[in-house]
Specification:
Blueprint lengths: L8 E4 L5 H12 L3 E6 L3 H13 L3 E6 L5 H9 L6 E4 L14 H29 L2 E6 L3 H4 L5 H21 L3 E6 L7 H4 L5 H7 L10 H12 L10 E2 L9
Parallel strand pairs: 1-2, 1-4, 2-3, 4-5, 5-6, 6-7
The structure holds nicotinamide-adenine-dinucleotide.
């Protein structure tokens, strides 16, 4: 597949680390100008910018808390052009359901779901006016499966799927909106959680019996952004090693 994103500008949220980093670099390598959004991760974001520059591309780091409407608006207004938005930023939280505080619930829902609302709303007016645009939202296989002790995360990621489908219908055919729901990926997000490699080995509920690498998720995002995916609308692709087969 030969995918060129020359003359396209992409915002990738939470792009300083993990999956977002891999997405930003892959889009940069494909020729896109990349806005590397981050929160309190200036050093890592600069490394992503440098990696894209080293590959001959252009990128800039912009710090903005994607749970904050004002900061999201400022980030979007600072961009001359926006063709692509990848809503990737997120957090995870593991806790028995009965112990989750309202504050903790709000933090996860704000980071994983409200952020998608805010960033999408901030770009969609402009995309609608220009008559083109592409949005890819990062959900999770846990949005389908649910998981004990991850109620807030699973609820937020299921919400991302509903939001994706609603916006895909509302803005079709001019703007193409889809989602990716990865299974476990080898990033810092999982390293501190109970969903470890040992968990995979023990439960054996992933036929491929391994985590994905961030690049494997980025490749799915790149496909959805490309023209090869021009007939995809409101779909949720699952690079998950078989954890779910919806
Ligand atoms: N790692 C996995 O197994 C896995 C599986 C399925 C889905 N996901 C999803 O993939 C996405 C990326 O996660 P990751 O695994 O790369 O973990 P990660 O922790 O490396 O990346 C998340 C990024 O989001 C940023 N972020 C968090 N809150 C933010 C905010 N308010 N504003 C701006 N940036 C913010 C973090 O600073 C971090 O850089 C997340 O949405 C996550 O839920 C991850």
């Amino acid at each position: 597949m030969n995918i060129s994103l020359h003359n396209k500008t992409a915002i990738v949220t939470g792009a300083a680390t993990g999956i977002g980093r891999a997405i930003a670099i892959m889009l940069g390598q494909a020729g896109a100008r990349v806005i590397v959004n981050h929160l309190n991760r200036a050093r890592e974001a600069d490394q992503v910018v440098q990696a894209i520059a080293a590959a001959g591309g252009w990128a800039a780091a912009i710090e903005a808390d994607v749970t904050n409407a004002h900061q999201v608006r400022q980030m979007v207004e600072s961009c001359n052009q926006i063709d692509i938005l990848v809503n990737n930023a997120g957090v995870i939280a593991e806790k028995p359901f009965l112990d989750i505080t309202e504050l903790e619930w709000d933090h996860v829902l704000n980071s994983d779901l409200k952020s998608v609302f805010l960033c999408s709303q901030a770009v969609l007016g402009r995309m609608a006016k220009q008559g083109t645009g592409i949005i890819v939202n990062i959900s999770s296989d846990l949005g389908y499966l649910g998981r004990e002790q991850y109620a807030s995360y699973c609820a937020a990621k299921a919400g991302v799927i509903g939001l994706t489908r609603s916006l895909a219908r509302e803005f079709a055919p001019a703007i193409r909106i889809n989602a990716v729901a990865p299974g476990p990926v080898n990033t810092a997000m999982l390293s501190t959680e109970s969903m470890s490699m040992e968990w995979i080995a023990k439960e054996k509920d992933i036929p491929y019996q391994r985590f994905a690498e961030p690049d494997e998720i980025a490749a799915t995002v790149l496909f959805l952004i490309s023209d090869y995916a021009r007939f995809y609308c409101g779909q949720v692709l699952g690079p998950n090693g078989g954890s779910i087969m919806p």
